Amino acid sequence: MTNRVDLLKFYSAGRFDFDGLIMAIEELVSNVDGEQLMINYTEVNEILSGTNLKRNSAHGRILARALANLIFASAHRSSAEMSKQKPSRRQIDTVQRKYDSSMKLTDRVVDTMKLPININEILFAANREWDYALELSRKNGLRHREITVTELLPTTNCPHCNVETYQIGANHICGLCGAMV
How are the residues of the chain apportioned to helix, strand and coil, as percentages rounded to the nearest 5? Predict the structure, then answer.
């Protein structure tokens, strides 16, 4: 099952509501049964634009990775909270690798005094989520065998309603009417 999160809903006036995003991810995860969980997110470019950060700048890349990391960590933590199965070594190793990767990203924390958004708070929220995910997955395992988080980038406009479409694999899907283009 695929779920979509519009990150722009959590951004206002230079602040990113990471607690609101975490709650939205919890809700998405709780509504997905089965072994696979796929979360797609959008509007990173709009947040970067609103903060005057360039996608290819050091701060822009860190912000984009921090947002993806927070979604991924929240999905894993929520899946572990809802799990009622014995943890497998593979699941624990997967969460451990992602946790380690998150810690490396935090080592690159930037001087936020010059930035128009709370990147450090987003990074620390993601690390907190990974801490919980690791602890809970060791106890409970994961409800979902596979968790995928993907950024959907705008590609073309839908011929039906002239709204930007998003690429998923080889398909382009309209963000408004859902048509495959």
Answer: 50, 20, 30
The three-class DSSP label of residue 83 is coil
The whole-model pTM stands at: 0.81
Kind of pairing between the strands at 36-42 and 164-168: unpaired
CB count, 10 Å around CB of 138?
A: 14
In this structure, the number of other CB atoms found within 10 A of the CB of residue 153 comes to 11
170-179 confidence digits (pLDDT tens): 677 777 777 8
Residues of the chain with pLDDT under 70: 1-2, 106-114, 154-155, 169-170
Distance CA 49, CA 71 (A): 20
d(CA 96, CA 119): 23
What does the radius of gyration of the chain's CA atoms come to, in whole angstroms? 17
